[in-house]
Amino acid sequence: MKKKIAFCTGTRAEYGLLKPLMELVLHDPDLEFELYVTGMHLSLEFGHTIDEILQDKIPVAEKVEILVSGDTPSAISKSMGLAMIGFGDVFARRKPDMLVLLGDRFEAFCAAAAATVARVPIAHLHGGELTLGAIDDAFRHSITKMSSLHFTSTEEYRHRVIQMGEEPSRVFNVGALGVENILKLPLMTLKELEKSLGVRFKTPYALVTYHPATLDDMDPENQILELLNALDSFPGLFLVFTKANADAGGRVINKLIDDYVSKNMERAVVFSNMGQIQYLSAMKFASMVIGNSSSGIIEAPSFGVPTVNIGKRQAGRVKAKSVFDCAVETKSIRKAITEVQATARNKQDQVSNPYYGKDTAKTIYKIIRDFLLAGITNKGF
């Protein structure tokens, strides 16, 4: 009987990272592939990105509706409750032999908890990392303790997972899928990108993504206003915004970005969702990445694109020398952008990306396959 490997995805970014690994499993005659789609993928407000999955001809086995209308911690907690119920039913029906999860979002945490109760072994990607400014940090480490296989993006993170008590023979440093995507995906030229998005990018431009820093004392509205005020000081810099995730405070941030773009249409555009190839292509030609997204830490260095990393959301992550940290305050953000502008882009081209790994997707796929066919059990017992 074929072994069934299930994947769960709730965001556009997560899906883009997992896609190469999904395709390897999907085309393996000895394995059965399933995909469970949830979260923002099913929301019109966040781009209904399940359409992108279907366009890629990736079959969807289950749709788990969880998002409630709201932008508060209470609303997120209610969504988590729905996720636990939904995934509990999915695992009872589908009975996968393994669940593959990436990262640290609340959707992944809920899927992991339901899988643990259902005695479904979990393979977890990007464990051991730190993001001290977000509640995702606690979710990530919790998923680690519920997982049977661990695929970390640096050796430092591998050691941290082992320090948490995980069996060393089940913890593998493989690099980041996002870096491999940069090297292997057919990215667009700037003209192709502009045509696909229906927008002409003025240069130089910055790619700007800001998510709620959920453990910050400053509320999300004031966080984004500090950033927008700083951007006013650089009228010659074209701004390409991508919207925040469905976290507490995310809708407030997105509304303020929409308002800002409507008042600055000559120098700013905003997208609810870019496909993976569009987003990475936009990053490739950007003069800098600004915000607090992990993509500025993990992917941007491979393009030689400097990052202005704002606030505590990514605090604790391993960072390349092309990442410039600053506080969530207008003056500090201005200073960091000015510093990046004064740094020649070609100097960044020599930056070593600590998240690079060779054949990351294929390595993960082979390890999961070997463990499954050998009869993997939960937590090695």
Fold and architecture overview:
- The chain has 16 helices and 13 strands.
- With 381 residues, it is α/β, with parallel strands linked by helices.
- The chain has 2 domains: 3-175 and 357-380, Rossmann fold (3-Layer(aba) Sandwich); 190-348, Rossmann fold (3-Layer(aba) Sandwich).
- The strands form 2 sheets. Strands 3-2-1-4-5-6-7 form a 7-stranded parallel sheet, sandwiched between helices. Strands 10-9-8-11-12-13 form a 6-stranded parallel sheet, with helices on both faces.
- Strand 1, helix 1 and strand 2 form a beta-alpha-beta unit.
- Helix 4 (106-117) runs parallel beside helix 5.
- It is globular.
Structure summarized in a few sentences:
With 381 residues, the chain is an alpha/beta fold. It has two domains: 3-175 and 357-380, Glycogen Phosphorylase B (Rossmann fold, 3-Layer(aba) Sandwich), CATH 3.40.50; 190-348, Rossmann fold (3-Layer(aba) Sandwich). The chain has helices at 12-26, 50-55, 73-94, 106-117, 136-146, 155-163, 177-184, 190-197, 220-231, 250-263, 276-285, 295-298, 300-303, 330-341, 345-348, 360-373; strands spanning 3-9, 31-38, 62-64, 98-102, 122-125, 149-152, 171-173, 205-209, 238-242, 268-271, 288-291, 307-310, 323-326.
